[in-house]
Here is the input.
Amino acid sequence: MKPLQSLNLSGKEVLPLVEGGKGISISNGVSAGAFAAAGGVGTFSAVNADAYDDNGDLIPIIYHGKTRKDRHHELLTYGIKGGIAQAQRAHDMAGGNGRIHLNVLWEMGGAETILHGILEQVKDIVHGVTCGAGMPYRLGEIAAQYNIYYYPIVSSGRAFRALWKRSYHKFQEWLGAVVYEDPWKAGGHNGLSRAENPDVPEDPYPRVRELRQVMNEAGLQHVPIIMAGGVWYLREWDHWLSNPEIGPIAFQLGTRPLLTQESPISDQWKKKLLTLKEGDVFLNRFSPTGFYSSAVKNPFLENLRERSERQIAYTSELVGEHNTEFLYGPRQRKAFVTEPDFQMAQNWVRAGYTEVLKTPDSTIIFVTPEESQAILKDQRDCMGCLSACRFSNWFQEDPWTTGKKADPRSFCIQKSLMSIAHGGDVENELMFAGHGAYRFGQDPFYAGGFVPTVKQLVERLMTGD
Here is the structure.
């Protein structure tokens, strides 16, 4: 493998290795600080980050507001306090080495408020902001206000061109790099467009080459690209190094740093990673954001899949083949369905899925009474963790609703991610991971259940493995 060249990222020469930011306490100040201390770029998540009291104990997040709007403001306050706490931990642990970045999702609730609230306090110890999950067109403007670098996450040259023309050309001096995240292989939320087939992954090389061409047209030949999603052995990317078609390049790793001693995930989660087989990570569209996302197949995802399969279309009046009356609920509400769907509905009811819930798409799903109660409670308890939520119909601006029916085919992502991040059952919560996570079980580095320190991982990566 060609030797890795250090790069200037966020104003300092560092190893071309970046820790991927993973939301809700999965990459935190400890993991980020360790990555920076090893000479790379550490990234802590500022998505509902953990905060601590004066004794260093975790502050439990408890909502007191009676309305979604009230709880949303509580969530922002918690998030800002947590982001500040993680920035300080990362700074202390880095010891002046590497760089520290924070990561936010543009589509998270109150993203701009949280960014301002954190950066006002930590602009002197955080060097960059990474942001994706949407089109973060105001990212450059916000970063420039605090004299720190910004790192937009895109999945195509087309997306970056749109951001550049709309906003980023005004703040080019603070553009640290552009993160290309493979929408088929990366963990968490993915940037697949409607024109792309989720079942047919594309080679990232021509897509990144196109991104570089777009950047060169804008005079950004010197600005690095950070390749994210599907990165495991760096020797597999040897043809990208010192390649004029790609230009200056760094590599972001989100999944491999999960299995380190500094990683905050539970031991149960770490052990689960070592058991995964190829295909165990599932690209799905159950997220209440509306984006595709990649997560480990488990009973939690299986339940969501089965829930969507117990679904039929209905009309409120007799229309065409929807000529069979179906009565549901304690008030015997009326829907018209097709005869074959009526028979399926009867079978589901007999199997115990007696509760019927409407979706925004003129369909109904069938769930158990216990599941119905849990869904409705989670929808009522919404705290506005997203800018717009399909599951609860929350919207972060007046009138505080998307205007659509809440979608029971989805789930409360805040509740599930908070649970798994703090020791929840990995089989019954959402567990994000990249599609290469099965390689933990094949890589001899992890033989016998070995869990390296971040420093050991970085040293291993620098060898090409």
Observations:
- The domain at 7-263+440-462 is CATH 3.20.20.70 (TIM Barrel).
- The longest strand covers residues 99-105.
- The chain is about 30% helix and 15% strand.
- The mean pLDDT is 95.
